[in-house]
Design brief:
mainly alpha; single chain; 102 residues; 79% helix; elongated; 0% strand
Length: 102
């Protein structure tokens, strides 16, 4: 069972790193949107290309009453990422630890 435990631990680490990276990309994009960035800037283009596939489906699903000029999709994504890190990833770590013991 140690192989499955090691696999789950590795998967949890990778998911944790990916969630952290996406968290920071979404946060930086939200902060940059406040200052009207240059759309030709390579960093801004990178941020838009990497975060738009995550943010756009959430924007589409938001009811019209929540679209009042302020984009709350980054807040929703950040809350989902925090939930994933708090629940799913920690559960994977705990499950892999129990596999090692049992």
């Amino acid at each position: 069972m140690f192989i499955l435990a090691n696999l789950l631990t590795a998967l949890a680490h990778i998911l944790d790193i990916l969630c952290t990276i996406v968290y920071w990309l979404v946060l930086i994009r939200a902060l940059i949107s406040w200052v009207n960035p240059d759309p030709d800037n390579a960093v801004v283009q990178f941020l838009y290309k990497t975060t738009e596939p995550i943010l756009e489906p959430i924007r589409r699903r938001l009811p019209l009453q929540f679209r009042f000029g302020l984009d709350i999709s980054p807040v929703i994504v950040i809350l989902v990422l925090i939930f994933l890190q708090s629940f799913l990833i920690k559960s994977l770590f705990d499950f892999s630890a129990r596999l090692r013991l049992g």
